[in-house]
Amino acid sequence: MWSFFSRDPVKDFPYEIGEPISFDSERTFWKLHKGKKKANGEEVTIFILDTKNSSPSEIEAAKAAVKRLKMLRHPSVLTFLDSVESDKAVYLATESVEPLGKYLERKENTQGDLSVAWGLFQVTRALSFLINDGNLRHNNVHIGSVFVNAAGEWKLASVEYVSGSDSSQVIGKVPSCLSQLDPPEVKTGSQGATKWSNDSWGLGILIWEVFNEPLHNIALLKNADKIPKTLVNVFKELTNQNPSSRPNPADVIARSRRPGGFYKNDLVDSLLFLEEIQIKEQTEKTRFFTGLPTVLDKFPEELCRHKILPQLINAFEFGNAGSSVLAPLFKLGKLLDEPEYQAKIVPCVVKLFTSTDRATRVRLLQQLEHFVDHLQPNTVNDKIFPNIVTGFMDTNPTVREQTVRAMLFLSPKLNYNNLNVELLKYFARLQIKDDQGGIRTNTTICLGKISCFLNPQTRRKVLIPAFTRVFQDVFPQAKIAGILALAATQQYYLLSEVASKILPALSTLTCDPDKTVRDNAFKTIKGFLGKLEKVSEDPSLKEKFEADVDAAASSAADAASSWAGWAVSALTSKFQRSQSSNAGLALIGQGGNPVRSKGRFPMGNQSSSSTSTTTSSIPSTPSVDKDVLQPTAEGQESATDYEDDWDNEDWGAIDGNGSSQSNVPSSNKASEFSSVNTGAANPSSRSTNTVSDGWDTWAIEETEEKDGWDGDFDVEPKNGISNSSDDFISNKSNANESEFLSSVLNTNKGPTSNQTSSEWGSTDSDGGSLAGRTTDPEKLEEMRKRREERKLHRQNELETKRSTRKGPMKLGSKKI
Q1: At a CB cut-off of 8 Å and minimum separation 6, what does 93 contact?
Q2: What's the N-to-C CA distance of the chain in angstroms?
Q3: What number of helices (H) and strands (E) belong to the chain?
Q4: Which residues, in sequence order, are CB contacts of 430 under 8 Å at separation 6+?
Q5: How far out from the chain centre does Cα 666 lie?
Q6: Is 171 exposed, middle or buried (0-12, 13-18, 19+ CB in 10 A)?
Q7: I need a surface site. Which of 30, 57, 178, 418 has the fewest CB within 10 A?
Q8: Is 306 exposed, middle or buried (0-12, 13-18, 19+ CB in 10 A)?
Q9: Secondary structure of residue 351 in the 3-state scheme
Q10: How far apart, in Å, are the Cα atoms of 454 and each of 55, 442, 469, 739?
Q11: Which residues pair with 16 in a beta bridge?
Q12: In angstroms, how far is CA 407 from the centroid of its own chain?
């Protein structure tokens, strides 16, 4: 009657029993099954003993195994999860594992496999724990008592016959074939000389079976041909007939961990370091994580994915591992499928972008290409982009440079506002105010590369002013970047814009002091002229040439296919590297900030060191990538030479190495650069030199005021960033910059008297046409007075802003 109301305990077992696992079961009475936890579907392994069809000794051994496994907790011992006993069966749930014999069947070469050394090390360590720390004896070590989990870690199990080290009584082993593996002294009925002699013998048997096959006759132990040479001596001592001569497992570890030992290799060293990372010094961590990526390729994939990667994540989150953990972390992240990557790696990435450590930010940006494909657009726009843009205003040039490069990978995922408004604000500021010529050049390059992702209306307003405004830069590579960017994005311009805006702007560079600038200007002009000649001969081609003006690239692949030949050769992977970047990176590691000048036209006399940063660094080999700019324009080609191959023409690449200096005698290099730099440092002398070319004085003065990037630039302060533009020197940019400003900044202000259009026939602030300006002396004098008043008013505003600035600088803040 009471049995009717009793509940079957198996129904409360929180695991589902799955299909059986096939393996050599002659040495055990357990049946193995796959299983899953009912609550979350976690995979487990279930050991089952059918009590109705088992002997009393087997049932007693199974219950003893459950009891012992509950008590033993060690990383190298099989992990106990749950158990249940009924009158029908005994159930034991453990972590998901498979028998070692089945695992080794998939191994082609166990001798050279690093994971085998790590597995034997784990078993030896587990035996050392039982004998020396737990004062216990295992009494049943062989290949059938070891299991392997998903991470490739070997776990010691089969604890049915564990006994105290001082006890000579051991439960009778079942099946009986296990007794064939007992040491000689046990077979004769004598007691071992040491508490570890039995388990040391079992360890020797395990080593032989790993490199050979399951042992059935102990006489075969004399054949050690397949055992690695670094392990032979230890193996012979473990299987010594004299029990007192067998070494303690702890001694086996100590000897094998010495240089040249079997347990001394990169895998064991790396895994042991990760296990002890909490007690390691910061310098040790940095050295370890820096060298780890070079050895990861030699490690088994399952160990990297399930063992090393979780350890790296824990080291990052809780171990103060620093930025050096990023390279191995992202390298191993490639082994994960998409759901796992989103769950494990992306949260780390988001957290890293909030860090204020410059070294972390730089290394993160350098690794961006390895994980950007796994970032969802919402994550990029809401969590990453607001943090990453602080790098545009950072005082360290390396941070700014890497931030610019990063936009190439993030642009396809940015929403309309972040891409067409916020990002262009920072690009505009870098293009005109950054003191590093390489960064200004890279900004132009990056804008050209991401132009395919811009909104067509924004693209039409921004590209021409952005690329032509750099023609006023003193850095030759910045000019070349603007020239080649126009060539690479030629499909986005109306033919009327080519004739009225691009060609007149390019023509000014045909007299540039730098020969490489002149060569590229002539080549690009000929290309545009060839395009116009084609349309002049056949007007029906106009629609074809302007087909992409208002078209948006649907993907990065479509965008890449629309690039001119120059984009493929020059902008695919190479950017200009400023010489100061290397010094800036060194300062990052030291916690220092390089001193910055105010804008790209520095005021006053410059020392030789500062001059080399902005000018003489152009032709220097270490400052730029070697394979970036090699101009191909040689000889005098006509415009028609470029008609048939405009889009496929290789327009060179951007690099200081091999620039115009290669065509200029060494004696003229210094004078050429000094003349450029002098004009930048001394605005008055620069104006004087410019007037001598035949242009009216009013034209020079007008261009000084038509910058428009200073007073109207409106970037919201982030992390203490100051937006004031005091001490900034006008860059003598042309009228196109005003249109670029109004379209990029998109401020809520209405049109003012100082804002002018970028059209060639636009009117100035006084209402007169630039093309038909009056020559009346009285009107000219009146206009000059108004300009002087505006300048004075602007200077007063800048002085007020500068006086209100205070407080410490933070990461992301840029000293103006």
Answers
A1: 13, 15, 35, 44, 45, 46, 47, 80, 81, 82, 83
A2: 91
A3: 38, 10
A4: 392, 400, 404, 439, 440, 443
A5: 41
A6: middle
A7: 57
A8: middle
A9: helix
A10: 78, 18, 19, 17
A11: 36
A12: 13
pLDDT computed for residue 20 by the predictor: 92
Task: Provide the CA 412 distance to its chain's centre, in angstroms.
Answer: 17
Dig out the tokens for 382 from the structure: 């809401």
Task: Decide: 68 and 97 in contact? Cβ < 8 Å.
Answer: no
C-beta separation of 62 from 31 below 8 A? no
Residue appearing with tokens 């930010």? 361
pLDDT at 194: 86
Alpha helices in 239-357 (DSSP H): 249-256, 266-275, 282-291, 301-303, 309-318, 326-333, 338-344, 346-353
Tell me whether the omega of the peptide bond preceding residue 175 falls within 30 degrees of 0, making it cis: yes
pLDDT score for 766: 38
Amino acid at 276: E
Question: What residues form DSSP beta bridges with 43?
Answer: 36
Quote the CA–CA distance of 47 and 90 in Å, as a whole number. Answer: 8
pLDDT digits (tens, 9 = 90+) for 794-812: 888 888 877 776 554 444 4
The predicted pLDDT at position 216 comes to 85
Residues 34, 37, 43, 44, Cα dihedral to 10°: -60
Q: Is 43 helix (H, G, I), strand (E, B) or coil?
A: strand
How much is the CA Rg of the chain, to the nearest whole Å? Answer: 37
Collapsing DSSP to helix, strand or coil, 94 comes out as: strand
Distance CA 693, CA 707 (A): 21
Longest dimension (CA), the chain: 126
Q: Given CA atoms 365, 367, 372, 378 in this order, what sign does their dihedral have?
A: negative
pLDDT (0 to 100) of residue 398: 93
Question: Chain-centre distance of CA 366, in angstroms?
Answer: 5
In the numeric block, which tokens belong to residue 182? 């007992």
Q: Which residue has the tokens 């970036």?
A: 628
Run of H or E including 436: none
Instruction: Report d(CA 793, CA 799) in Å as an integer.
Output: 10
- Cβ–Cβ < 8 Å for 693, 670: no
Integer angstrom CA distances of residue 83 from 14, 20, 78, 88, 742 = 10, 18, 14, 14, 73
The pLDDT, as a whole number, for residue 360 is 86
| Contact present, 537 and 481 (Cβ < 8 Å) | no
| Residues 463, 469: Cα–Cα separation, whole Å | 10
Q: What's the burial of 413, exposed, middle or buried (CB within 10 Å: 0-12/13-18/19+)?
A: buried
Backbone angles phi, psi at 245, to 5 degrees: -90, -5
- DSSP track, 197-225: HHHHHHHHHHHHHHHS---S-GGGGG--T
Q: Which residues does the chain have with pLDDT short of 50?
A: 1-5, 554-574, 576-773, 808-816
